[in-house]
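Sample intake — Rhomboid family intramembrane serine protease
Collected from: Clostridium bovifaecis
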Amino acid sequence: MNEQLKRFQYNAPVTLTYTFMALGVLLLGIATNHASTTILFSNYRTSFFDPFQYIRLFSHVLGHATWEHFSGNFLIILLLGPMLEEKYGSKNMIEMITITAFVTGLLNTLLFDSALLGASGIVFMMILLSSFANAETGKIPLTLVIVVIIFLGKEVVSGILVQDHISQVTHIIGGLCGGAFGYRKLHN
């Protein structure tokens, strides 16, 4: 049995740890009838005198409302994360996730009255970042152009035409963060 367990490899530590943390937060939310999610893992406009506000600027990317919400985000993160973590390194992935969480959390707090919950900004960051994975300096990857048109274009149109509880702005900002990270890494 011990030999069997040794075959499993924790191959993408940031991606896997992030996934397990978000799963733990989801289970805690279910156990507390979502009180923990509201207090600690959902970003919304409140006073900056509220000490939890500073935690929520980052922690909203761990919270999810339902199993479907969680699995929709983390299936993509688990597909893209290991490849991105191998390409850019674990330390850079932590940095990119943290910056994207902060930027989306802060802009949501400053510009919108709605709550922000989930990892979709991180998903869109990873989608755009993955378009740079095999890019060459001085060249624009066609995959990047198509991804921008399909994914971000859909979000712009949905943000204008559809009234739902999905933050298309967070998707766009996450995608822009991924594009900026990819561009920066390509030119370093």
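Post-analysis note: The chain has one domain: 2-186.
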